[in-house]
From TrEMBL:
This is 2-dehydropantoate 2-reductase. One of its GO terms (molecular function) is 2-dehydropantoate 2-reductase activity. Pfam families: ApbA, ApbA_C. GO terms for cellular component: cytoplasm. Its EC number is 1.1.1.169. Pathway: Cofactor biosynthesis; (R)-pantothenate biosynthesis; (R)-pantoate from 3-methyl-2-oxobutanoate: step 2/2. It catalyses: (R)-pantoate + NADP(+) = 2-dehydropantoate + NADPH + H(+). SUPFAM superfamilies: 6-phosphogluconate dehydrogenase C-terminal domain-like (SSF48179), NAD(P)-binding Rossmann-fold domains (SSF51735). One of its GO terms (biological process) is pantothenate biosynthetic process. Residues 2-112 form the Ketopantoate reductase N-terminal domain. Keywords: Pantothenate biosynthesis.
Amino acid sequence: MNRDGLSIEGPVEAFVQPVRAATPDAVEGRFTRVILAVKAHHTLDAVRALAPHLADDGYVVSAQNGLNELVIAEEIGDARTIGCFVNFGADWLAPGRILFGNRAHVAVGELDGRETERVREIHRLLSIFEPKAVLTDNIWGYLWGKLGYGAMLFATALTPASMSDNFASARHFPVFHALGREVMATARARGVSPLGFNGFDPEAFAPGASEEAARASVAAMAEFNRHTAKTHSGVWRDLAVRKRKTEVDAQIAVIAELAHAAGIETPAIARLVDLVHDIEDGRRPQSFDTLDLLLDTCASTTRPAA
Ligand SMILES: NC(=O)C1=CN([C@@H]2O[C@H](COP(=O)(O)OP(=O)(O)OC[C@H]3O[C@@H](n4cnc5c(N)ncnc54)[C@H](OP(=O)(O)O)[C@@H]3O)[C@@H](O)[C@H]2O)C=CC1
Ligand SMILES: CC(C)(CO)C(=O)C(=O)O
């Protein structure tokens, strides 16, 4: 990147941006604004490494999946943490080369919902990248919406197929239905009002919602993902391409812990976490047989009581 710049490629935009890049050990100086974009399980290490480089009035914006804002705020304080939700698709292709696969929802907000000068400025900067970026007073609503969708993306990564083809598989609808319902029930138990985006409709997975509404949302997610050059999720890439651990513990297992604390059962999430571990550890392949094991759990949890 230092030699050639950062190359953004793909159907959305193509350009080369000159940048100054440094590995963590070579970073010098103190900064006011830090955008954190490491995988969720690296958040704590990264925050500890960057903290000495954060100005007294500096802050960290979490451009990640998961509830990383909780981890960051625990380490450096609520006042130095800003929430962010990103749903566009990007793949690392090679050093200095990134595929920008599609535009999608982006939102930013203070953790307590206030509209401060600094969050307005971050929103202005994000809008250069994504003109429809939202400045929100409910960032937790977006983060929990993404957790609902994210749990489904982890399920799609159990197979070799694209996100879209997974969502379009009518036989596997109970998987997406059960995962969405477990996550949305947990969000509500924590007093969060989850928000929707790009086909994901939180109301469709709320307690008491009709199966028809959930089917419409899953179909909308299949359609949305049909039009991206990033055909597979980051989770799938971690397993199939990068051959490394996924964010499943930091992003998904944590939902089961929060659900348990609220007295909510999460059999689908528990099974999903186990199956992802099985693939990470080489005990199972990415295959529809693996997804079918999750289907067995989900079909029994979503089947109406006799
Ligand atoms: N890619 C996408 O389309 C989307 C991603 N997200 C979320 O965004 C976050 C980032 O994802 P993504 O960009 O795809 O991930 P990548 O793995 O491509 O990038 C993460 C980078 O963080 C680096 N890193 C790891 N630990 C540290 C550390 N302690 N200090 C400094 N750098 C570190 C990694 O280096 P190295 O490779 O050397 O380990 C890697 O370059 C994740 O939470 C993901 O779920 C959200 C929406 C879409
Ligand atoms: C699929 C995507 C880009 C969201 O649409 C994502 O969040 C991921 O790859 O983890």
